[in-house]
Design goal:
The protein is built from 7 helices and 17 strands. The protein is α/β, with parallel strands linked by helices and 358 residues long.
Length: 358
């Protein structure tokens, strides 16, 4: 057999295997009942998982395409938020990072097209993931697309981390930001922290939390829960031990792992209650509960359904002192019951204790 014929045969086999794997994965993405009505007196915080599902010219999913770049999932997610904002009493939206798949202008333009439709509709924050910057922390395309100047007119935008270093592409200009919102008679502060945020960023976040100690605090960062140690083989992303991650993807020796971020920031603040994250699509959905230094419960909540148009709805029900966590497919407006890597329904739909009574 010639080399060309052998190569063609091998490619055909690999293509068939990939198609079968994709079909099997799709079959295991099980949807259940329609999304239920919001309980009386409740309000919703929406978390957008990683949105790396770009197709079109020079994308990972369709590298040979000549079509313009699109992201149907992100379009569906932002449309659903707009259309259901009143019905679901959506008070805040956070993106967990990996807004784009390739850090290129074409994908940032599509991200802006869809995420900008939330402006003037609902307060929102964006997290910079490892795909949204270089390994050294250069986030200039994110900064050009979503600069701090484009948020300063909104009363809910509190500000961002700033520094006087020569390289302003790293960490500054909305790469780490903070927002305020109120609902159900409760006041909240939210902070977006870039992937593996360095010590100077964590110091800033600590100051923000301390100055707003009277507000309930949430943080969204890209890497938190997932595979504990960096896998040595590809299967490790599925089968290796999981928890709060101890490895980094960005900022080199300056970057903090999720475990270091817990020790240097999260555990120290009595008002912190939740850390949202993404990054780990093969972990998909995971939660962990720890107690901070002041006796406060801190929930860590991972959601990364990047191959599907999924949203996480955190329904705060003050009358019950509960948060109902609802994972839904917005194309069908139905509940996610199981996925390829996480077949347990209770990891996609569950309830958290969260005291809200005054």
């Amino acid at each position: 057999m010639s080399i060309l014929r052998f190569t063609a045969a091998l490619l055909a086999i690999l293509s068939q295997a990939f198609a079968q794997e994709k079909a099997e994965a799709g079959a295991k993405f099980k949807l259940g009942a329609p999304i239920s009505p919001l309980p009386d007196g409740a309000f919703t915080v929406v978390v957008i998982p990683d949105t790396q599902h770009y197709v079109g010219k020079a994308t990972k999913l369709s590298p040979k395409s000549t079509e313009p770049v699109t992201n149907e999932n992100l379009e569906l997610q932002t449309r659903w938020i707009r259309e259901h904002k009143a019905e679901q009493h959506i008070v805040f939206v956070s993106h967990v990072g990996d807004i784009v798949d390739y850090n290129v202008p074409e994908q940032w333009a599509i991200a802006k097209q869809h995420l900008d439709t939330l402006r003037g509709v609902v307060p929102f924050g964006l997290t910079v993931g490892n795909h949204d910057m270089t390994g050294k922390g250069d986030a200039h395309l994110f900064q050009q697309t979503f600069p701090a100047s484009s948020f300063k007119s909104y009363p809910w935008y509190l500000g961002c981390f700033e520094h006087a270093n020569d390289d302003q592409t790293v960490s500054a200009n909305n790469v780490n930001s903070t927002q305020l919102f109120s609902a159900g008679g409760l006041d909240f502060i939210h902070i977006n922290l870039e992937c593996n945020a360095p010590n100077d960023v964590l110091a800033w976040a600590g100051e923000v939390l301390a100055k707003n100690a009277n507000r309930r605090a949430f943080i969204t960062t890209h890497m938190d829960l997932g595979v504990l140690e960096k896998p040595k083989e590809n299967d490790g992303y599925i089968h290796d031990p999981k928890g709060r991650m101890r490895w980094v993807k960005c900022h080199g020796v300056r970057g903090n792992s999720a475990e270091q971020m817990w020790d240097r920031l999260y555990r120290k603040h009595a008002n912190l209650g939740i850390v949202f994250s993404g990054d780990q699509s093969r972990v998909t959905a995971m939660s962990e509960t720890r107690t901070g230094d002041h006796g406060n419960v801190v929930y860590s909540l991972l959601s990364d359904y990047m191959s599907e148009p999924v949203l996480r709805l955190y329904r705060f029900v003050p009358a019950e002192n509960k948060i109902h966590v609802v994972t839904c497919d917005v194309r069908e407006s139905r509940l996610v019951e199981a996925t390829n890597y996480v077949p347990e329904q209770v990891k996609h739909q569950f309830t958290l204790d969260y005291p809200m009574s005054k």
